Amino acid sequence: MKKLLSLLGAMGMVATSSSVAVACNNGTSVKDLSTIKTADLTVAPTANDEAAAKKAVLAQINAKLSVKAVETTDVVFSKFSQATSAEKAGSIVATAAEKSTLVKGTTTFVLTFKSAEASSKTELLAQIKVKNSDASALTEDDFDIASEPAISATAAKITAKGDKYQGSVSLTYSKGEASSKAELSSVIKTLDLGAFSFSESTPSKTELLAQIKVKNSDASALTEDDFDIASEPAISATAAKITAKGDKYQGSVSLTYSKG
């Protein structure tokens, strides 16, 4: 017991010493922005706008000068120049606010260009299916994204793999707003509907929907208002292509079946 009390006493002494040391640090001199090393004056914002540039610069100032400066109170910004490419960096001037108690001086930061994020394999596949009805059965296991040329914000080359496809294709695209619609293929995953009864030589929309639900539990909420039967290729006694409509789904799927 005596030893424990001795230990606790020593801890108390350390804590007291620490408090004194912190108190002394409050008198640290104001840091000069111009003393930040040249190598540390280049920052990489998360976007190419002024707000992202200010955030990145403030973080760099605080990290390199060991302060907690904030905009307006301690640092004011001017002369923002946006980065427009990897070859053309931007810049922004950071100046200490007149009444700041943390920093003084002024310096200019270099802003690296933030390129648009390349599409993921999953996103590419989804859009391929939207634009290519014959690709409804394509999966991520059927292709790789080529490394040469590297995928970019506007183009990608994909190369077949596995035992179903061969060759490669070069794709182009642009970044748009994310769609809130689900892929029709996400609820109709079993494309072979098997044998079922239909009254005419080809199934009606109602009969087709009923069999889709029999084979696809995820399609339980699907209604006739959510899709149209495509006219090209025309529906037959063994196959049909359906295309999404309305505001719930997008894309299309090709179905096969037989009359039972």
UniProtKB/TrEMBL annotation:
<dbReference type="GO" id="GO:0016020">
    <property type="term" value="C:membrane"/>
</dbReference>
<dbReference type="InterPro" id="IPR054816">
    <property type="entry name" value="Lipoprotein_mollicutes-type_CS"/>
</dbReference>
<keyword id="KW-0732">Signal</keyword>
<feature type="signal peptide">
    <location>
        <begin position="1"/>
        <end position="23"/>
    </location>
</feature>
<dbReference type="Pfam" id="PF05215">
    <property type="entry name" value="Spiralin"/>
</dbReference>
<protein>
    <recommendedName>
        <fullName>Spiralin-like protein</fullName>
    </recommendedName>
</protein>
<dbReference type="InterPro" id="IPR007880">
    <property type="entry name" value="Spiralin"/>
</dbReference>
